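Subject: design request, 281 residues
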């Protein structure tokens, strides 16, 4: 993924904090499966997030010097500002009444309107405060534990997926899924919501470099392959096979590797969010 040196970066869209690591009440192989299936959480973070925390949370100013696309080469942390700016600029133009939000980068644990999260939860979107939360250490797990190739495009896909939940939230889709009360199953509303977020991520990827003001200058075939590879890596069936050696379709919460790749590819190939109606599929 190439960055446009002349593009302005808005670091106010990305905040950061650090806190002492906490523990979730999850243990053993079953706990590992639950944590891995919580990756890309979008519907009900309270499933794995705890209550309020008394652990101090220190705000950091990691991104203050991220002012242009050229700064990504000087400070790799600036790439998160570039991803976020590009994603939000696209959706602001594509969705009438789009409401900007923030990406919050944390280490250890973080207090959110959905509860207290630790790094073990993985990236998630909290629909209460409408913020995307991410411990960037997850990207090491994506490559070392889940077997993805990684790279900037894979990272951008992860964040774009969470912003896909923001779009579903603004449209009222996320609320309808929550009210359905169905939390798992290969054809469940929750899986369809996650696949919609994958499709929206693909749509953004298709449009990321079209705006001459975008900090993303180009998206190559290798970038698309890396994003698709990341989507496959976090398929429920692949995670279940790696963790337990068996596949249980009735416990799926995010979709199979094939489904996730399919919907990411659908979004990218069409570049049209209207083609992301996974609920009609």
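Subject: RE: design request

Done. Sequence follows.
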């Amino acid at each position: 993924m190439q960055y446009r040196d002349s593009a302005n970066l808005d670091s106010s869209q990305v905040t950061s904090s650090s806190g002492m690591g906490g523990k979730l009440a999850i243990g053993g192989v079953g706990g590992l499966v639950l944590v891995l299936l919580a990756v890309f959480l979008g519907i009900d973070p309270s499933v794995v997030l705890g209550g309020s925390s008394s652990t101090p949370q220190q705000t950091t100013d990691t991104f203050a010097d991220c002012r242009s696309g050229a700064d990504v080469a000087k400070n790799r942390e600036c790439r998160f500002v570039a991803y976020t700016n590009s994603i939000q600029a696209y959706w602001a133009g594509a969705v009438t009444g789009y409401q900007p939000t923030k990406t919050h980068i944390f280490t250890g644990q973080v207090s959110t309107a959905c509860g207290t999260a630790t790094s073990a939860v993985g990236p998630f979107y909290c629909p209460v405060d409408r913020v995307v939360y991410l411990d960037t250490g997850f990207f090491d797990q994506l490559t070392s534990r889940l077997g993805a190739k990684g790279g900037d495009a894979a990272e951008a896909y992860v964040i774009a997926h969470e912003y896909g939940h923001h779009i579903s939230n603004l449209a009222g889709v996320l609320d309808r899924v929550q009210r359905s009360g169905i939390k798992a199953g290969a054809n469940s509303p929750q899986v369809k919501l996650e696949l919609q977020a994958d499709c929206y991520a693909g749509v953004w990827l298709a449009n990321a470099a079209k705006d001459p003001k975008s900090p993303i200058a180009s998206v190559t075939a290798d970038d698309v392959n890396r994003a698709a590879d990341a989507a496959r890596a976090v398929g429920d069936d692949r995670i279940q096979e790696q963790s337990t050696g068996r596949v249980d379709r009735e416990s799926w919460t995010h979709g199979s590797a094939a489904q996730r790749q399919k919907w990411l590819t659908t979004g990218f190939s069409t570049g049209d969010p209207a083609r992301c109606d996974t609920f009609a599929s």
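The chain has one domain: 2-280.
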